[in-house]
Amino acid sequence: MLYKRLEQFAEKNDWNINKNFAYGEIEGYLFTVADIQGFKVFLTPLLGIADEQKQCIIDFLNKNKNSLKFHQVIFDNDILTVKFREIFRSEKIEVMEGYLNNIVQFLKQNGIAKNKICSICGEEEADERAYIDFLYMDVHQKCIDKEICEIEKAAEQLDNESKNYFVGFIGAIFGGIISSIPCIILQIFFNKIAVLFAYIIGFGALKSYELFKGKFGSLTKWIIATAIVVSVIVDQFILIGIVFVKNGIPISVESFQHFFEVEELVNEFNKTLKISLFMALIAIIPIFIQLKWDVKNFLPKFQKEKC
User: Fold this and answer.
1) Which of 101, 244, 286, 291 lies at a CB distance of 3.0 to 4.6 Å from 249, suitable for a disulfide?
2) Which residues, at least 6 apart from 10, have a Cβ–Cβ distance to it below 8 Å?
3) Is residue 142 part of a domain?
4) pLDDT in the model for residue 262
5) Cα separations (Å) of 212 from 209, 228, 289?
């Protein structure tokens, strides 16, 4: 989704935009603007400048904080980061342009970061621009080509390495069953309402998969889902066994056969099983979305600027 005000700002100033990021240049200075969780964040790489210059920039901005209408300014390593808080509405384009004009004029007048320094090797005379983990940066062409080549090799190695699926699967089942114990106890004392706590099983299966050294890959979400189904079914059979013990019925194959011959009991078992599965699976839907497998999501992102 493109954020409307950011899109309007990018179009007006002839900047590039990608999702909730906008990228542009003003008189040789590069800017990345991010629309993130109630903030407009302006990021400016100023590589190689001294600590005294950083403090000078911060002092200048803080002195003009009210007129520029920003919320916070910090240096994250060599990245000047200025945040504009957006509570009820998006920041006005005029306010964003006012900040950019002021900071560019200040940097120019004080001769700060005039040389193009490669963000990869740290040397001067950068001759290319690239997006590095969503930041718009100066680079050498040879440096970015080398990094992209190494990333592709690393991606191939990561994609081909063993994901330890089998041991991870055992761990996920173990974690799911252990996590079902609180649900069993709650169902004993609070009856049907306790199945709403079955979401614990989903988290337990995932954490145990990681604990048993299972690595994330294309099959991970299916392994977790299978472990949840197995754990919930085991949970329900344990509950039936507890009911048998409470009523003086021996736990045996024959007892379970008799149980499943009674239609009313089978319907109740299926109903509880479905609710438990639903609660356990719904708890990890956000995790499933994040586990959409793409090996490059686990590596730094380098992309050349398109001509």
Assistant:
1) 244
2) 16, 17, 22, 24
3) no
4) 87
5) 5, 16, 22
Would residue 129 count as lying in a domain? no
Residue after which a domain boundary falls, among 114, 133, 148: 114
Distance CA 229, CA 101 (A): 58
Domain count, the chain: 2
Together in a domain, 171 and 291: yes
Task: Give the integer Cα–Cα distance in Å for 64 and 83.
Answer: 14
The answer to whether residue 122 sits within a structural domain is: no
Query: Nearest 5°: phi and psi at 37?
Result: 45, 60
CA atoms within 13 A on the CB side of 162: 6
Amino acid at 235: D
Model confidence, pTM: 0.57
Residue 73 has pLDDT above 90, yes or no: yes
Of 91, 105, 140, 131, the C-alpha closest to 26 is: 105
Contact 102, 94 (CB under 8 A): no
Q: CB–CB of 43/31 below 8 Å?
A: yes
Domain range for 49 is 4-114
DSSP 3-state of 29 = strand
Give me the helices (H) in 121-219, please.
141-160, 165-190, 199-211
174 to 166, 212, 278: CA distances (angstroms): 12, 10, 20
Nearest to 82 by CA among 96, 72, 95: 72
pLDDT tens-digit series, residues 237-261: 888 888 888 888 888 888 888 888 8
